[in-house]
Design brief:
The protein is an alpha+beta fold and 575 residues long. It has helices at residues 2-20, 22-41, 47-73, 77-98, 104-123, 133-168, 175-196, 212-243, 250-269, 277-308, 312-333, 341-355, 360-378, 395-412, 429-432, 508-518, and strands spanning 382-383, 386-387, 445-452, 465-470, 475-477, 482-487, 492-497, 500-506, 525-527, 533-537, 541-555, 560-573.
Amino acid sequence: MRISNLTLKVTKAFEKSIRRFPLTFLSAFATCLTIIIMIEQKREPSLTLQRLAMIFALSIPITLSFKLLWERRSKDLKQLLLYYLTSIILIIGYYFIFLNKLDYISTSRFVGTNLIFYLVFLFVPYFLSRENFEMYSIKIFTGFFITAIYTAVLFLGLSAILFTIDSLLGIKVESETYIETWFICLLIFAVNYFLSLVPKKEDTFTKFDFPRAFNILLNYIVIPLLSAYTVILYIYFFKIIVTQNWPKGLVSHLVLWYSFITILVIFFVYPINKDVPIAYYFTKIITKIIIPLIIMMFFSMGIRINAYGVTEPRYYVIIAGIWILFVFIYWNINKQPKNTLIPFTLALTIFISLFTPISSFSISRYSQNKRFENLLIKNNMLKDGKIQKNPNVSIDDQRKISSIISYFETRQGIDKLKYVPKDFNSSKMKDVLGFNFETPYYPKEQYFYFRIAPNSLIDIKGYEYFIQLNSYNQEVQNSKDFSFKYYNSKSELVIFKKDKEVYRKNIKEIIQNAYKKYGSIKPDMELKIEELSLNDENENIRVRIILNNVSGRIDDSENISIDGCDFFIMFNEKQ
């Protein structure tokens, strides 16, 4: 009876959410279906499928936000169709404008846009002056955590069933099935169950609805911990001031996440902070003493930016710090704050950082180009807007220039770097600048990642057999009496015929020449097929091995360690 009641409850919840948010349900379903198709292909998905999965995922918060906006403003069905049409046009426009290719910038914007619309979903029912927004937010967060627990239990239960079927009944369950099950639980069950818990416009909340468990967690566990952390931070900063020894990149992370968590705690305890002394005094004191810590964070970031210029991560730290500082100043000068401004201004800040002329990409591009220009001028390498070779540049400046070039290759695109030729890349530095790429730092191990271009045409003429193998699926057998094994520990490929070894090769030999030529110039480097292939033979077979992709490390003694690889094998038997 209890199981039937639970099933009925979940069914009604699904019906309720689908009726209220039909487009959101369709978006979640389309996302799930697209991801499953990508998994079932068992190869690198096409660009179109990846873009479709991303835009369907983005459609979830967009359609959700527009539906809640309609509920807030009216109940007219004609207007609802207009809101739906607007959301669809926005989704299609984003797909063709901002997802026309997948790179660092488009991926960053995709993540940021999701955050923006989830924040819009949170504040739009209460924006700007409706009371008890904090209680509504607590309801949303409570529903989220309940859904997360139910989803985890459902997935673990289904996984146990699949494992039992595989182990006891002998029915093979592929590893991909578990991944697909997770996405079904997440995008079908979790999305719909969570949406069934979203309050309606007519639902009202007061401070008396504040969950008792939440009250205990925040006031008697989280607030004391944050207070202790604040004292430790002040002691730590006092030590920095005395010793004048600034740790690299650590200060910003110490302050940023601590400040963000503090904002969440103050926001959540706002409805009861006048009734609970610990919440009242914490809010009153922390909103003031945290400001010097934020200023210290800016000072720390200023040192980094002065030395290395602006990059996207440093920009995000600065703009997040500005938003955090605004929030605490606002709480100090306004005795009756409108807390809907907190998520609204955060969404606005994310939008500014991604889509405006002062975005992280624009500012970083300008800063790194300016650094590049100054280094060229310093070393007498710039004349009439053209680069002049100078092989006598100091090693330190060679590393700085190499770092800038690596930055543009991996994030902005080398075409955004000023003064270099159109066909320039880091492998042509000696021809253009007069010196080779210099690794910016001195780690004990250098990392590399080589691959051939996607969709490369491979000539298999002259070979009878073809197979693909990778370091994760280390043993493969087929019907021609051949089997293949890759030994990770030795980086060796071995081919057997009827359990007899007929060929063995250490694939490190393939990448030694490529590494000597290119080093660890950037984490993702495409090479020609010829640069990642080996033709070989012995008395048994004639072989061609092509590394589709390979990643690994090299130590100070130039010993290569391969972390992962995927390669093609073509061979003929010798008669």
